[in-house]
Amino acid sequence: MSKKLSNEGLREVWDRYAPRYDRDIGFFERIQFSGGREWVCPQATGDVLEVAIGTGLNLPHYPADVRLTGLDLSPAMLGIARTRAAELGREVELCEGDAQALPFPDESFDTVVCTLGLCGVPDERAAIAEMHRVLRPGGKLLLLDHVGSQHRVVHFVQSLLEKLSVRMCGDYQTRRPLPLVEQAGFVVQRQERLKLGMVERVAAVKA
């Protein structure tokens, strides 16, 4: 098992990586996650929390009438998101914080969004529980991430890659968040597996 990075270590990694993130993720967006943001964000309604908002790549895809809050561990990533929001004329409250201990009261939001973020949280079970806590009854959880494939050969390759990626940037390749979503008290309405089962899209509601 690869050693987990602490929150301080993760913050340092992502602060350093922030200036290159948009360029590098663009490659993976084209070959692996194409259409994912466009699938997730238009489903958001009301008061919306985006967990791990990063550099704000989702901002152009939200409906104009949502009230948006974005949280991220990295101040440098948030700085880029703030600039992007200003360029788009999008009003958004941005705050630094930990997905595993969200700094919001219970039942604060109608929608929680997390795209390509759960794979980088040290304890994804805690993060999902926090998302459940801050959602109002009937609220929506919208997820996009890379996950462990059901194909044995692909999963084996992912496991090898994970030994390096967890140590370097806290990125897990083989997680399967869907069972944790259901265990947390969500009812899954839509779930899609793409790209040899390596990409998952989930839309669920708080029961």
Automatic annotation (TrEMBL):
- Set out the biological process GO terms recorded for this chain's protein: methylation
Q: State if Transferase is listed as a keyword.
A: yes
Q: Which UniProt key words apply to this protein?
A: Methyltransferase, Transferase
The source's superkingdom equals: Bacteria
Q: Could you tell me which InterPro entries the record lists for this protein?
A: Methyltransf_11 (IPR013216), SAM-dependent_MTases_sf (IPR029063), Thiol_S-MT (IPR052356)
User: Which Pfam families does the record match to this protein?
Assistant: Methyltransf_11
Record's keyword annotation contains Transferase: yes
Q: Which GO terms describe its molecular function?
A: methyltransferase activity
- Methyltransferase type domain sequence ranges: 49-142
Alphabetized SUPFAM superfamilies for the sequence: S-adenosyl-L-methionine-dependent methyltransferases
- How is this protein named in the record? Methyltransferase domain-containing protein
